[in-house]
Amino acid sequence: MTSEPPIPDGRAGAYRLFPAVRRPHGSGSIVLTVFVVLLLCLPSRYVFAPLGAAGTPAQMFGLAAALWWSAHWLARHRPETSLRQPVRRAALVFLAAIMASYAAAALRPISASEISAADRGLLSALSWGAVLLVALDGIPDRPRLDTLMRRLTMLGGAVAALGIVQYLTGQAFTEYLRLPGLAVNGDLTSVGSRQGFFRPAGTALSPIEFGVVLTMILPIALHYAVTDRHRAVRSRWFPVLAIGVALPFAISRSAIVGAVAGLAILLPTWPRAVRRRTYAGVVALVGAMFVLRPGMLGSLAGLFTGISNDASAQSRSNSYAIAWSFILDRPVFGRGFGTFMPQYRILDNEYLLLLIETGVVGCGALLVLFWVAIRTAWRHRFGAAGRIVGGAPTLGAALAASIAAGVLGFALFDALSFPMVPGLMFLLLGTSGAMRRLALESADPLPPQGGPGQGTVGPPSRPEGVAPVM
Q1: What is the pTM of this model?
Q2: Domain boundaries in the chain?
Q3: C-alpha Rg value of the chain to the nearest Å
Q4: Residues 311-343 pLDDT 10s
Q5: Cβ-Cβ contacts under 8 Å for 89 (sequence gap 6 or more)
């Protein structure tokens, strides 16, 4: 009978949540790959009928992943060390806030439809939390993390390519897909129109969700396109080009704002020569759009210059007074996650919706989770010497940019009411925590605390719980 070798205190392997599973097998990364395929490749309107909107295959797989993660947690050979995981703590606080809002809903007079909505909301939150925890604890090493992120970018490029075809043809094509055991939850057109242009949705529920998903994948796709010199040029640049072309076709303020914010965070971390080539590529893309699609740039500019006369923007501003009355009625834990249904009012602002449904506690917990994940990823844009590794772009900056783009998207539409954006967001949040864990396991020292926009970098500090090497 053999036993595992002892784990050195504060050094490689100090944080092992799944010691019963040999990390080289990469079971966590395989589970997450299946989740990403289900999330991006299957049209979001296909659901398991008894669960309605919460019954997409990706969310059901997330619930199964929750059981898988729980089984490994209970079967671990030795307890955790005292090393902290801020992303895990923030995520568990958010899930606790969702459960508190569920209890608050059960304690007030509530209709049968709202009870069903609260049940769906709780199941969705558990699924998202499971994806985060599996990403945080189940990715065995940095090569597997990179492989997962490359798969994400390739599938994102495929969704973008589908959106381009939908834009050019005016056809959705998703209605031709029939999956046994799944029901259609709504119309499967996946193509809308705005200012005379088709608005593709790919496999998402709406063009807005389609655009936000692409903005969240774009920084990661750019990272691997620039750094993966060992791969063929076509394979590493395909996702970037497909997303860059498809994004304007969504004709969405959320997508444009998210893309600009993501690039504004990511590009300053790159060497000057790489930035210049990227700027030249953006200018070339805009010029090509101006020539090939006359009127598209004017339509995109009109989303911001004509905002005072835009019906969508006016609907958002007119919702504040209504939302405020609901918030004041139950300000702490809210009226129950998922219970402010679309037939009451579409707010197009997830933070406002969360204040109504989960109160200050739930909305604040989600904002803290976002900040902790961005901060964690941003710190890992550094190498062991406390600077950009070899002058090359790093994944930490790309993850921070992707999460930040999604955070802005949450302010411009009711993101948690859709299946694709929250699934992707919680995957990226967990990946941010996984980067920290892998750095601790390899005894890679962390730099001082800081966030985007902080300039000077001091000497690197040690991670919590890591003893100095004598």
Answers
A1: 0.83
A2: 24-68+91-441
A3: 22
A4: 666 666 677 788 888 899 899 999 999 998 877
A5: 372
